[in-house]
Amino acid sequence: MPKQNLTQYAVLGLLDLSSRTGYDIKQFVEENISHFWNESYRWIYTTLDQLDADGLASARAEDRGERERVVYRITKKGQRALQDWLAEPAKPLKIRDEMLLKVLFGHAVPARISVQHVKRHQELMLERHHELDDLERELPGMDLDAGGRQHLALTLGLSRRVAAAHLKWCEDALKQLQSPRRKTGTKRRTRTR
User: How many CB atoms lie within 10 A of CB 26?
Assistant: First the structure.
């Protein structure tokens, strides 16, 4: 692949686990790896078409009653491309977190607004924690080989630790923001020349 496109490698990796339709890929992403990876239907189907055109995957039409399904399978060339990409070091994580940006600039508004942002984040992290619990319980019955289950469990382990760290941060942040010593809104400093 000339230009590195992480969607292509994500789709190749999922096809390496088993042959799938675009719908199957989207479902697997939503149900099993959304704690760290998301893809839109549009990009999945665009990517599948490109992988097929590049010879990295092959498409096969299957008749399923009223509708025809197109099932994609990784090719030997696709497996080599996936293995080459897997051998490369991962790029550093870049984060764009709107909630943290709002907390950073929270001095410009009453404390209750920052408190609302942190409480909402806390709710989302609790939801994620419960979703990860559910996924961990479902893991043994998933249609993956032992290696696939082990590696999915590793991603769940980190995601659980990240969610726990976020929850602890929310607890600490709320204590600080709700402290009586916290000033609500500060005056802007004027620069002197």
Answer: 19
Residue 58 pairs in a beta bridge with 73
The residue type at 41: Y
Tens digits of pLDDT across the chain (193 residues): 444 689 999 999 999 999 999 999 999 999 999 989 999 989 999 999 999 999 999 999 987 777 889 999 999 999 999 999 999 999 898 889 999 999 999 999 999 999 999 999 999 999 999 999 999 999 999 988 999 999 999 999 999 999 999 999 999 999 999 987 655 554 455 555 5
Which pair of structure tokens corresponds to residue 84?
């080459």
Q: What is d(CA 14, CA 10) in angstroms, rounded to the nearest whole number?
A: 6
Q: Which helix (H) or strand (E) holds 51?
A: helix 41-53
CA-CA-CA-CA dihedral for 140, 141, 142, 143, to nearest 10? 120
Q: Which residues contact 85 (CB under 8 A, 6 or more apart)?
A: 4, 9, 12
